[in-house]
Amino acid sequence: MKFFIDTANLDEIRQANDMGILDGVTTNPSLMAKEGIGGKNAIMQHYAAIASLVDGDVSAEVIATDYEGMIREAHELAEIAPNIVIKIPMITDGLKAIRQLTSEGIKTNCTLIFSPGQALLAAKAGATYVSPFIGRLDDISTDGIQLIADIRLIFDNYGFPTQILAASIRHPMHIIESARIGADVVTTPLKPLLALVRHPLTDKGLEKFLADYRKHNP
Ligand code: G3P
């Protein structure tokens, strides 16, 4: 399973990368705005900075919602670095754009997936990744993890190569459950990722090992 970090914060990306387990980065317009990045040049430069920090895929999202606009933006974003993946919203024009970009050899990530049918369409259009937002489904009392399971079953039924990228992760159990079901990728904020590291018995065990060592190595 691949680990992506879901942030546009360069320090958080560096921190996750330093852990030695990072495979890529996902961003979205809200995450860029959170970092105070605005204006086309600043946005493009920020994507370039992110793409230079990691070897793996970096999702950069289009703002246009019409086919021509999405394709134009996608070409500009794809020029930034070879590891840029174009994030396209799940709308009718988005499917068409995914089909076109795929035929040009440009990787895509179909975002804002909330149903198995949407994931099926994105896979059919040739998306490299689909991003089901599990936290936002949980927020409205719908089982987000079940969506990952449904998509896994459908993709496996037909051998779709599209990778399931579990997104909108809120806590470490979202990561564990996604892994159990067989999501190909989880994109997580830094906090749930760091929470996976910690266990009280690990802390207690380490403390005892070191205390015992110190007894005979004063
Ligand atoms: O990258 C998109 C997704 O992960 C958004 O998460 O927390 O805004 O629902 P959230």
Count the DSSP helices.
11
Indicate the low-confidence ranges by residue numbers. none
Number of strands: 8
The geometry reads as globular
Biggest β-sheet strands, sense, barrel = 8 strands, parallel, barrel
Rg (C-alpha, Å) = 19 Å
Description:
The protein is an alpha/beta fold. Helix content is 55%, strand content 17%. It contains 11 helices and 8 strands. The protein has helices spanning 10-18, 29-34, 40-53, 67-78, 92-103, 116-125, 134-139, 144-158, 172-181, 190-197, 200-216; strands at residues 2-6, 24-26, 57-61, 84-89, 108-113, 129-132, 163-166, 185-188. Strands 1-2-3-4-5-6-7-8 form an 8-stranded parallel β-barrel, surrounded by 8 helices. α5 links the parallel β4 (84-89) and β5 (108-113). α4 crosses α5 (92-103), α6 (116-125) packs parallel to α8 (144-158) and α8 packs parallel to α9 (172-181). The mean pLDDT is 98. Bound molecules: SN-glycerol-3-phosphate. SN-glycerol-3-phosphate binds at residues 6, 26, 28, 133, 135-136, 167-168, 187.
In short:
The protein is α/β, with parallel strands linked by helices and 218 residues long. It has eleven helices and eight strands. An eight-stranded parallel barrel has the order 1-2-3-4-5-6-7-8, surrounded by eight helices.
Keywords:
218 residues; alpha/beta; 8-stranded parallel barrel; 11 helices; binds SN-glycerol-3-phosphate
Which SSEs are present, and which pair or pack?
Layout: E1 2-6, H1 10-18, E2 24-26, H2 29-34, H3 40-53, E3 57-61, H4 67-78, E4 84-89, H5 92-103, E5 108-113, H6 116-125, E6 129-132, H7 134-139, H8 144-158, E7 163-166, H9 172-181, E8 185-188, H10 190-197, H11 200-216
This protein binds SN-glycerol-3-phosphate (G3P).
